[in-house]
Specification:
GO terms for molecular function: acyltransferase activity, transferring groups other than amino-acyl groups. It comes from Lysobacter enzymogenes. Keywords: Acyltransferase, Transferase. About 65% of the residues lie in helices and about 0% in strands. It has helices at about 5-25, 45-50, 55-70, 75-100, 100-110, 115-125, 150-165, 170-180, 185-190, 190-200, 215-230, 235-245, 245-265, 275-300, 310-335, 345-365. It has one domain (about 5-100, about 145-375). It has about 400 residues and is mainly alpha-helical. Helix 5 packs parallel to helix 15 (about 310-335) and helix 13 runs antiparallel to helix 14. The protein is built from 16 helices and no strands. The longest helix has 30 residues, at about 275-300. About 35% of the residues are buried. The radius of gyration is 23 Å and the shape is globular.
């Protein structure tokens, strides 16, 4: 099977966008985050909102696509064991080693944690509740912060593995075929309807708290797009249709966002249920149309062996694990120095990119660290004289 370069490239670009997004969280006004700069911008909210509505949906959809390819030729048990190792080890290592600087910086900034990182770690590893509001996750004694994605993805992977007999049944394949056969406006409308329905039914009852056990609204949305990615797979006809529709979706997505934004800005917060349902339906239509546009254009432009792609494909996981801790650490260091509104974000972004690059170069060279950041073990080079030409012939069956 030919490698899908566009999916590898899209994964790398999606996580690059995530790094930019988290850097911008320091500066967007009225949105809470672990640290906030004095240089806040209300105008930054609108481009952030434009991206916010589909950024994680895109990442979960790409994850579903990856599962589709990983399951080919692999049994469900082996697949689940491999994915558990590559998700749960980086999650555990990240929570214990990479993330703690974030609650420490947030707690010190909030005046609820005493300065001194060593003393903080001794208290943090007791996994006891902290003073209320010290940092996100204070009530549990620890936090996974940006690594929540790994926990959610592992749960969705387990659920999908359990559903494989159903998905591979005649009814499951018929449903997958129905999605793959969608063309034109049906492709742009029908997959958005479950997203709208889940928002209408679940969003009023489940806030987006990041609580894995009670986050049922986001679970419904993210698992649906994860399943869409698994079903989308490598269906040539569906990818050709997404590519054909790419100009239409690129035009339609901003129009839907403009209508959605107009309703948010012009209407009061307390609106009748019917109006709220309309807003959520517009949001769902925008999300799916934006995803279709991204998939169509990436398939058209990126499905080729780009020179930077092998390095970026390996770098994605370590950069994801490292980036937010570096953002928070650099911000914690430089916010008291009172740099200007241009110099400060430039230093944060440049320092984050440089830190990710240097640490990734270290991680990829240390065998013990590689699995802690989601990297596969390096293949050992065959000794001289034992290359393919001199390898012993296989024994007859």
């Amino acid at each position: 099977m030919q490698r899908r370069y566009d999916i590898d490239a899209l994964r790398a670009l999606a996580f690059c966008l995530l790094i930019l997004y988290h850097c911008a969280m320091l500066y967007v006004a009225d949105w809470g985050w672990h640290l906030k700069s004095p240089h806040l911008s209300e105008g930054l909210q609108w481009p952030m909102l434009l991206v916010n509505r589909w950024r994680m949906d895109l990442i979960f959809l790409i994850s579903g696509l990856s599962v589709h390819f990983l399951l080919r030729g692999t049994g469900a048990g082996r697949f689940l064991a491999q994915r558990s190792w590559r998700l749960l080890l980086p999650l555990t290592f990240g929570c214990l080693v990479v993330v703690p600087i974030q609650p420490y910086a947030q707690g010190v900034a909030n005046g609820l944690v005493e300065p001194g990182f060593g003393a903080f770690l001794l208290r943090y590893y007791q996994f006891k509740p902290w003073p209320q509001g010290a940092f996100d996750g204070w009530q549990y004694g620890f936090t996974w912060n940006h690594l929540w994605y790994l926990a959610y993805l592992w749960v969705y992977t387990v659920v999908l593995a359990a559903l494989l007999p159903l998905l591979r049944s005649r009814a499951g394949l018929r449903l997958q075929g129905a999605l793959a056969s969608l063309r034109g406006w049906a492709l742009l409308v029908l997959p958005a309807l479950p997203l709208a329905l889940f928002s209408i039914l679940l969003q009023p009852h489940f806030a987006d708290t990041g609580d894995l056990i009670h986050d049922w609204h986001r679970h419904a949305i993210y698992f649906t797009v994860f399943l869409y990615g698994y079903w989308l797979g490598n269906d040539a006809g569906l990818w050709a249709e997404l590519t054909r529709l790419r100009r239409r979706t690129l035009t339609l997505a901003p129009l839907l966002f403009a209508a959605y934004l107009a309703l948010l800005k012009l209407l009061p917060e307390d609106v009748p249920d019917a109006v709220q349902y309309l807003i959520w339906t517009l949001r769902s239509a925008y999300i799916w149309t934006a995803l279709c546009a991204i998939l169509g254009w990436s398939h058209q432009l990126l499905n080729r062996p780009l020179r930077w792609l092998p390095w970026a494909t390996e770098a994605v996981y370590p950069w994801y694990v490292l980036h937010q801790s570096l953002i928070v650490l650099i911000a914690y260091w430089i916010l008291p120095l009172k740099f200007g509104p241009l110099a400060e974000p430039a230093i944060v972004l440049a320092g984050t990119v440089a830190g990710c690059f240097v640490l990734h170069e270290i991680v990829r060279r240390v065998p013990l660290l590689r699995p802690c950041f989601g990297l596969k073990a390096r293949k050992r080079r065959a000794p001289a004289g034992l290359g393919p030409a001199s390898a012993p012939a296989p024994k007859p069956a």
